[in-house]
Amino acid sequence: MRSLDIGATGMLAQQMNVDVISNNIANMTTTGYKRQRAAFQDLIYQNIDRPGSTSSDSGTTVPAGLQLGLGVRTGSVVRQHGQGAIQITENPLDLAITGDGYFQIQMPNGDTAYTRDGTFQMNENGELVTVQGFIVDPGITIPSDAQSIDISPVGEILVNVPGQTTTTNVGQLQLAGFVNPAGLEAIGDNLFLETDASGSPTTGTPGQNEFGRLRQSALEQSNVNVVEEITLLITAQRSYEMNSTVISTSDEMLQTVTQLR
Amino acid sequence: MENSIYLALSKQLVQQTNMQIIANNVANANTAGFRAQNIIFEEFLVDPRGKTTDDAAGDPLSFVYNRAQYENTSPGSLSQTGNPLDAALVGPGFFGIQGPGGEVMYSRAGQFNMDADGTLRNSAGFPVADQGGSPIIIPRGSSEIKIDGKGVISNQNGPVGQMMVVEFDDPQVLEAQGNTLYSAPEPGRPAENTAVRQGHIEGSNVQPVVEMTRMIETLRNFQATQRVLQGENERLRTTIRKLTQQQ
């Protein structure tokens, strides 16, 4: 009974589907989170009668052969890099990217990680850091006596220092872009690493070329659409049930066979 | 040997194959671009033993066997994803995909992605073919990627390639190869009645209600045939017992 195994591949695939959907729902309020999607593919086919094989001595061929499929597998789980909604906050160091690009983060081990999450803060040295305390690359130090901080859409950071009438430029934020952002490797904490699939990054000023602009005192919310996720969840659950019905039906057929005598 | 047992057996074998096809349809109910399969049964006539050509009595015995399977070519449901690299086909056509050996294969699944070089690939990693059968490369720094109804992909600077979209006179000649790819004996001709829709995905055309009904039908057919076998077995046993008692 191959249908038993086929039903099992269907259940496994749907289980993976529910895993992906539940992670999306769990991260619906995570800043800068990008939703994922599982893509399924049919498994190989077993040729019982090849299409085009001859069916008589006079050379007639069968129009469609007999090919039996062997189930389903998860082809890939792809991250969808659509823009999330922008939420206004009161914190002057919160940054949202409207458009393409990633902030570059200096990891403690020297690697560069990439993120869309612009929830930045200052550390004890006045350096711009992430929630985890990792330094934003290129490093920006904000003077301790700065009164107000302005971050322009193109990434210039301007501060007001007492005793000066003009603002001082203390740094320029840079964004990184990838040919294939779906190929980035997620390492948790809203951070991504470059892989062979993503390609090497190009860096640039916000607002130039393909890079999006920055928005101060705003955060990018996740791009999870709850209604869509719940709909997908219902579909996945019902598919799971149907596959289990296939298994129990196959089981019943086998049981019938064992009663033969 | 007794023909009735083999008649019943032939039916049970095809019901098992039928069950496998239904199981595969159900397992792939959420596979984009998958097309449900149906089975064709055929009668296989055999003259009963001892029948001569001028014998008027006795119809031929009719065995059943699975002749072939065919694909349901009705369109699957379209769902909107908003992903600019998703494309669905409206109409009978197929996308051209470069298979593992570089040959052109065909698929209805339009969940495309880019790799590090910007090559457009399907969800199994095979490159999407352009009209000449070579991969489509979307240049670095592209934004505002648009796919028009004829499969022309363009970025902010203009067209970068055109997807191969082909049609077949008889879609049943396509041979499923897994990964929602099909191979064809002859290349298809350029599509005339098929439109590409960006930001959508075509789901499978499996209809769960139909599959569940077919499954119940298959199970009951299988069980009914089992009764025939059991009845025949009883009949033979009774015959043997009665004959041996008379000696």
Notes on the protein architecture:
The complex is a heterodimer of chains A (261) and B (247). In chain A, helix 1 runs antiparallel to helix 2 (226-258). Helix content of chain A is 22%, strand content 31%. Chain A is an alpha+beta fold. In chain A, strands 7, 8, 11, 15 and 18 form a five-stranded antiparallel sheet that branches. The two termini of chain A are 19 Å apart. Chain B has 247 residues and is of the alpha+beta class. In chain B, 26% of the residues lie in helices and 28% in strands. Chain B contains two helices and 17 strands. Chain B is elongated, with a radius of gyration of 26 Å. Chains A and B meet through helix 1, strand 1, strand 2, strand 3 and strand 4 of A and helix 1, strand 1, strand 2, strand 7 and strand 13 of B.
Biggest beta sheet summary of chain A: 5 strands, antiparallel
Query: What spatial form of chain A do the alpha-carbon principal axes imply?
Result: elongated
Q: Provide the succession of SSEs of chain B.
A: HEEEEEEEEEEEEEEEEEH
**Into which percentage range does the β-strand content of chain B fall?**
25-35%
- Mean pLDDT over the full residue set of chain A: 88
- Tally of alpha and pi helices of chain A: 2
Query: Portion of residues in helices of chain A?
Result: 10-25%
Spatial sequence of strands, sheet with the most strands of chain B: 6-5-12-15
Can you summarize this structure?
The complex is a heterodimer of chains A (261) and B (247). With 261 residues, chain A is of the alpha+beta class.
Which characteristics define this entry?
heterodimer; A: 261 residues; alpha+beta; five-stranded antiparallel beta sheet; three-stranded antiparallel beta sheet; 20 strands; B: 247 residues; four-stranded antiparallel beta sheet; 2 helices; 17 strands; elongated
